Amino acid sequence: MVISFEVDVLKFIQQFSCPALDVFFSAVSMLAEQLVLIAAITYIYWNLNKDAGKQIAYAVFVSVSLNSGLKNLFNFTRPIGIDGIRSHYTGTATGSSFPSGHTQCFSTAAFSLAARMKKRRVYLTAAALTFLVALSRLYLGVHFPKDVLAGGLLGIIISFLCAFLCRKIRQKSLLYLVSFALMLPFLFLNTSEDYFKSLGLFFGFLIGNFIEEKKVSFSAGERSKTEAVLRWIVGLLLIAGIQLLGKKLLGGSALGNFLRYSLVSLFAIGIYPWIFSSVHRKICKKAA
């Protein structure tokens, strides 16, 4: 569904296009990319605050699953190819247009962090960065205004709803399971590649959380900064390895994408904490 007014808005924004702004808004848009969000969430989860990391991850996985489902439901076209609209960085423009996945997922992560910290400056930073991410998707010509507006609002709503549920419900495993089940009806639509990736991330999170709670129960924030950064870098390299190997072995089918992304979040949430906790215990025993 294309509204002429929205096309005029994009043309107005793009009249200020220049090489410097191209670079700037491409970089801003990257803030909502998968790698950046994974890097931020895992650093919080592994090194700063385990509960905060889980809460942010839970909200983001709800958000990406819902976003992929809604895109399949509405199936709106993007502005790519419309006369007078200059679209680039289109490799990030997967699936349908509404709502904007970049805007929704970034606002979910940013406001989930703000909801945990409860500081005015963090809320203001989250709002400013969400606005810039939304603007970047318009400037790059890959979304219409309604897409980024809906994505931003949904992200904020999901972040606060998930924060509220995490405060009120003590049995987190049950909360996560019910939330995952609510995403499953989208399977009856003509589902996209992104939906199965999102569902895989959520499923791996469920299993990883169970492993962490029952078998690991590690403590974040007890290492030196050097140890924390090293743990983080090694973990990200291993995740990248799982992604590459998984893509080669499992392929790009719906089931392959689901399994590959399940392994990524399962490793990040459950297996890797078990590994570094075990190594730490062995080092402490030798030192004693």
Give a written overview of the molecule:
- The protein is 76% helix and 0% strand.
- It is mostly helical.
- The longest helix is centred in the C-terminal third of the chain and has 34 residues, at 254-287.
- The model has no long low-confidence stretch (mean pLDDT 89).
What low-confidence regions span 5 or more consecutive residues with pLDDT below 50? none
Number of separate helices = 11
Q: N-to-C SSE series? A: HHHHHHHHHHH
Instruction: Output the radius of gyration.
Output: 20 Å
Q: Characterize the overall form.
A: globular
Q: What's the total number of strands?
A: 0
* Largest sheet report: none
Assign a percent range to the helix content.
Answer: over 70%
- Compute the separation of the termini in Å: 67 Å
Structural class: mainly alpha
* Residue-averaged pLDDT: 89
Strand content: under 5%
Features:
mainly alpha, 0% strand, 11 helices, globular, 288 residues
